[in-house]
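Private note to self, pasted from the team thread so I don't lose it. Backbone tokens:
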């Protein structure tokens, strides 16, 4: 079996809030294989947002190891972490985080701009990805001209454009009605069938059931890790 694409070993994250020490993660260990589709669940305050921030290289663990592919992320400096975020990870947020002044294609191009890709090459790739997620008739629209489901498709396309090792999704259906949410989950299923590795944080058991595995946290520890 090939090496896991994500390896967490005794991951701990502690915050100092005045005189109070908060242990957000208290020794989390698990592995994710390439092309797995994982849901992370748990009550508020269980550590799932902290875990997502560490996985997304937005925060460092206080101790333990995090390997992404063949790199030990827990030992990288800020510049190296920024490079990993821009080249090896794709992010999808509940609130879409689109730039209102840009068109659909221009929003999808943003990660490529920071990589210094030539403009013509970036435009062609962004257009190709937009077509893959069902935005053929919306390429020149701006976010305020789109439905919530369409905006989330733009966010998915933006996450895909740098061909990431892992896609991280934080409550990606949280702002959508049930029909639009179901459409987005179908897109995720298609991406997973194409070999993409997905890590999804959700509070909704109905959403989690679409993944192949659910990791549930409680009080900064893994409470359960089961196949769906």
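Design output:
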């Amino acid at each position: 079996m090939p090496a896991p694409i994500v390896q967490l070993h005794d991951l701990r994250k502690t915050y100092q809030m005045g005189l109070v020490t908060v242990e957000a993660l208290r020794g989390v260990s698990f592995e994710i294989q390439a092309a797995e589709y994982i849901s992370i669940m748990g009550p508020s305050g269980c550590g799932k947002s902290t875990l997502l921030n560490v996985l997304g290289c937005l925060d460092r663990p206080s101790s333990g190891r995090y390997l992404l592919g063949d790199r030990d992320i827990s030992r990288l400096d800020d510049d190296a972490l920024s490079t990993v975020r821009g080249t090896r990870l794709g992010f999808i947020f509940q609130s879409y985080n689109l730039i209102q002044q840009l068109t659909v294609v221009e929003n999808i191009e943003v990660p490529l701009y920071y990589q210094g890709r030539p403009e013509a090459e970036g435009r062609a790739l962004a257009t190709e990805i937009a077509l893959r997620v069902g935005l053929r008739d919306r390429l020149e629209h701006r976010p305020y001209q789109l439905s919530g489901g369409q905006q989330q498709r733009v966010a998915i396309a933006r996450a895909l454009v740098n061909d990431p090792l892992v896609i991280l999704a934080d409550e990606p259906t949280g702002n959508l009605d049930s029909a639009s949410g179901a459409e987005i989950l179908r897109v995720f299923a298609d991406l997973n069938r194409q070999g993409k590795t997905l890590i999804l944080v959700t509070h909704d058991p109905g959403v989690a059931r679409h993944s192949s595995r659910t990791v549930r946290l409680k009080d900064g520890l893994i409470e359960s890790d089961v196949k769906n």
